[in-house]
Amino acid sequence: MIRILIADDHAIVRRGLKQILAEESGMTVAGEAQNAQEVLDLVRKQAWDVVVLDIAMPGRGGLDVLKEIKPEYPQLPVLILSMHPEDQYAIRALKAGAAGYLTKESAPEELVKAIRKVLAGGKYVSASLAEKLALALEADDQKPPHETLSDREYQVMCLIASGKTVGEIADELSLSVKTISTYRARILEKMSLKSNAALTHYAVQQRLVS
Questions:
Q1: Which domains are delineated in the chain?
Q2: What pTM does this model have?
Q3: For a pLDDT cut of 70, what percent of the chain falls above it?
């Protein structure tokens, strides 16, 4: 029996994933987690065949958790599930060691297909993402400014560009307003931009936010 750990802070999402996987013979959701610490505790206490991990949990996000899991359990496939479009986080997730990246809009059969692929030792990406990855490899020596940001800086940049205030971002990420302000200053400096408006314009132009 394939033992799957599902990590998502929304109970309704976890229930939906469980229902999809319950219909598959040989698969069972043997554990659920709703934040980073629960994921890490469960991974360390029990044996899993695959982890399905949400990228945007409160506090420490999925990428942080992924970076902690991979050095300890390099053979454990982690499939990232995200509400963010592939353009935003997929390449970062794969570079951090994810076995695959799936958006929450994907059809249920895509999830099953992705789990089977990563269990067989493969990587799961959509056809459109595979094309983007190939192009990214070709153009790796001409990185756009947002590629120089850390994962957390990139996350904050996307939230600023989507119109959220420093206070709202601080609440969403369970960080202090001062910390977010520091991130904002660092982002603007790294990207040679002067204001939130310039940042938003850049993010829209690069299709990092819709």
A1: 2-138 (3.40.50.2300), 145-205 (1.10.10.10)
A2: 0.68
A3: 96
